[in-house]
Amino acid sequence: MSDDVYRLISPSGTESELPVYSGTTGPDVIDIARLYKEQGVFTYDPGFVATGSCESDITFIDGEKGILMYRGYPVEQLAANSNFIEVSYLLLHGDLPTAAQLEKFDHTIRTHTMLNEGMLNFFKGFRYDAHPMAMLSAVVGSMSAYYHGEMDASNPDHRDIFAHRILAKLPTIAAAAYKLNIGQPFMYPRNDLGYTENLLQMLFSVPAEPYEIDAVAAEALDLLFILHADHEQNCSTSTVRMAGSSGANPYSAIAAGISALWGPAHGGANEAVLTMLEEIGDTSQIGKYVNKAKDKSDPFRLMGFGHRVYKNFDPRATIIREMCHRVLEKLHREDTPLFDLARELEQVALKDDYFIEKNLYPNVDFYSGIIYRALGIPTSMFTVMFALGRSVGWAAHWREMISDPAGKIARPRQLYKGPATRDYKPIEER
Ligand code: SDX
Question: Which residues line ligand 1 (CB under 6 A)?
Answer without folding.
Answer: 47, 231, 234-235, 265-267, 269, 293, 301-309, 358, 360, 363-365
